[in-house]
Write a structure and sequence with these properties.
Layout (H helix, E strand, L loop, with lengths): L2 E5 L2 E4 L4 E8 L8 E6 L6 E6 L6 E3 L7 E6 L4 E6 L8 E8 L8 E4 L3 E6 L1
Parallel strand pairs: 2-11
Antiparallel strand pairs: 1-3, 3-8, 4-5, 4-9, 5-6, 7-8, 9-10, 9-11
């Protein structure tokens, strides 16, 4: 049974930084691409970033490109999202997801429970 557990969310002032973590268990982590998404009230879930099984290929949504960085540590079964220059509009619940394949682009088979990020102005 695959489990994804996010952590690192919280309250931060605009312009600040947070690093989210997502610890995975249940199947061989290094075999699968990973991604981060977010959802705020009244909006659809939004893709943010993804990384391939070996960390060499990544992609970003335009809304976070240059501010957020996705990375992974296969030895720790963990994927990270470093978020810099945060804006109030980044306020949302952030989710990690695991791809069906070693690459990225979906479909996304498993999801975490989410962690809240709130950016104050």
């Amino acid at each position: 049974q695959v489990q994804l557990v996010e952590s690192g969310g919280g309250l931060v002032q605009a312009g600040g930084s947070l690093r989210l973590s997502c610890a995975a268990s249940g199947r061989t982590f290094s075999n699968y691409g990973m991604g981060w998404f977010r959802q705020s009230p009244g909006k659809e879930r939004e893709f943010l970033a993804s990384v391939s099984w070996n960390g060499r290929n990544s992609s970003y949504a335009d809304s976070v490109k240059g501010r957020f960085t996705i990375s992974r540590d296969n030895a720790k079964n963990t994927v990270y999202l470093q978020m810099n220059s945060l804006k109030p509009e980044d306020t949302a619940v952030y989710y990690c997801a695991q791809d069906r394949t070693a690459w990225v682009g979906g479909p996304w088979d498993y999801w975490g429970q989410g962690t809240q990020v709130t950016v104050s102005s």
